[in-house]
Amino acid sequence: MKKSKVLALAGGVGGAKLALGFNLILDEDTLVIVVNTGDDEEFYGLHVSPDLDTVMYTLGGIANPDTGWGITGETFRSLKRLQQYGADTWFNLGDMDMATHIRRTQLLGQGNTLSQVTNSLCSSLGIAPSIYPMTDHRLRTIVVTEVGNMSFQEYFVKNRCEPQVISLKFDLSSECAPSPGFMKALKASDLLVFCPSNPFLSIDPILAVPGVREKIKGFQGPRIAVSPIVGGEAIKGPAGKILEELGHEVSCVGVAKRYVDICDIFIIDRMDAHLATLIEKLGMRVVVTNTIMGSDEEKRKLAQEILSLDY
Ligand code: FO1
Predict the structure, then answer these.
(1) Cα–Cα distance measured from residue 33 to residue 38, given in angstroms and rounded to the nearest whole number
(2) Which of 67, 97, 125, 142 is deepest in the core (most CB within 10 A)?
(3) Rounded Cα gap, residues 137 and 37, in angstroms
(4) Tell me: the pLDDT tens digits for 35-72?
């Protein structure tokens, strides 16, 4: 296995799985994970960063494998009491998860950046590699649907992904820029990996941070993407539905088209081997392997395979 400094771009569950795979084989100073924060939202006055928490809990070994979000063995007593007080409780925050958001909100309120807060939370959970938000500023994903615009969580949780999606847009503050850790990793890493995350909901927000797309175009090393669509279906989440509603092909080819110009090697599952030539025509080298990461061993194996590729 080659020694590389890896920058992994991740969204929720799929991204967290591959990030864990890298974490199992790389030294802590050779892995940086940059996470989508377009899904962030305030609930009950608390700043919730779902994708950061999914990655953090996964690497910390406390993620709930059944839901794909929150902490394992969670209880919801605080939420029940909030409901009793008349709060709108469609977003299910568990009691232990709530502590993360309380602490995050407290530290942000004291003037710390989201990067600093994430670093503090990770250290407390004994997580060694660097996990950074894509930006320390506001960049929120807005889902434009047939029934109006809504935040990502309103679309995903409150409306259970039911409204038809017309487009996605990003609401960003004027000072929005890549987080300092992201900037540094873009310069210092020699391998960039787009984890198998939703290209619209997880990767596009990262690419929408001003300057990021250009920096990835000029990245010094190989850029590798893993398809989150296998056999015409999303491994998890609404990627397939959104691809279809936005007029894209629900296949790894549809995903690959999103990566033209910013990716050199596209990894697809064995089930999709017959689509390799279509992706090669887009100007990317294709690697066919097992991409479903059920066990930790499979996560480690996929990460190892990526690091062992002949670039
Ligand atoms: N997803 C749901 O489908 N229902 C929920 O009630 C829910 C609560 C929740 C609480 C904290 C958190 O960090 C994530 C939560 N999620 C929930 C998942 C979240 O909507 C998604 O993981 C991401 O935003 C998509 O990557």
Answers:
(1) 16
(2) 97
(3) 9
(4) 999 999 999 999 999 999 999 999 999 999 989 999 99
pLDDT at 232: 85
**What is the whole-number distance in angstroms between the Cα of residue 67 and the centre of ligand 1?**
8
What's the whole-number mean pLDDT along residues 8-15? 95
- Which amino acid is it at 58? T
Q: How far is CA 263 from CA 64, 70, 219, 266, in A?
A: 32, 31, 10, 7
C-beta 204 within 6 A of ligand 1? no
Nearest to 235 by CA among 200, 265, 198: 198
Pairing of strands 233-234, 229-230: antiparallel
Give the C-alpha separation, 109 to 218, whole Å. Answer: 36
Whether the CB of 303 sits within 6 Å of ligand 1: no
Substitution site in 47, 62, 79, 92 for ligand 1 pocket (most atoms within 8 Å of beta carbon): 92
The answer, yes or no, to whether residue 1 has pLDDT greater than 60, is: no
CB of 41 closer than 6 angstroms to any ligand 1 atom: no
Determine the Cα–Cα distance for residues 163 and 147; give it in Å rounded to an integer: 7
Q: Say how many Å lie between the CA of residue 35 and the centre of ligand 1.
A: 15
| Cβ atoms of residues 249 and 243 within 8 Å | yes
Q: Residue ranges per domain, the chain?
A: 6-139+169-307
pLDDT in tens, 225-245: 999 999 988 777 787 888 889
Instruction: Give the distance from CA 257 to its chain's centroid.
Output: 19
Considering the entire predicted model, what is its pTM?
A: 0.96
The side-by-side arrangement of strands in the sheet containing 148-151 is: 148-151, 139-145, 165-172
CATH superfamily of 6-139+169-307: CofD-like domains (3.40.50.10680)
Cα of 69 to ligand 1 centre, how many Å? 6
How high is the pLDDT of residue 205? 98
CB 26 within 8 A of CB 6: yes
Closest CA to 121 of 208, 74, 76, 54: 54
